[in-house]
Amino acid sequence: MSNAHMLKRFQEEVVKQGCDATLPSNLSDFWIDELQRSLAQLFEGLDDADDSDSNGCMSLPLAAIIHILFAKSEGLVVEESMEDMFRYFEDYRIELALEALRRRTSVQAEPATIESIFTNRNVCING
Fold this sequence. Notes:
Number of helices: 4
Strand content: under 5%
Distance between the termini: 37 Å
Order of helices and strands: HHHHEE
C-alpha cells in the first residue's frame, strides 16, 4: 500500500475521530503496528545517508504528532523547534511501544493523555 494511501486512510479512520484519536491508547492494533513500522524505518534511515525513503515513512507519524500538538494547543497555532519535533518522534515511538506492551503482556503502563504526552512524564508500570 502506498504511503499516500496509508496517510489518507489514517486521516479517515483515525484523525477524523476526534482530538485524542491519535493517542496510542486510542489506536487500533493495526495503526499501532503501522506507526511503529514507520518509525522504525525512519530511525533506521537516519543512519543511512543513502536512504531515499525516509520522508515517506515520516508522513504517518508526523500526521499523528501534529494532530496531538493541535489537540494540546486546543486548535491554536502550533510553533515548535525542529529539535522538539525530533524529540516528539522519539517520545511517540516510546508511547506506542508502551501501549503495545500494555495490550500484549501482563505489564501495565499508564497510558499517555493529551495533557501528559510529550512532557517527559513519569510512567507508572505495574507487572
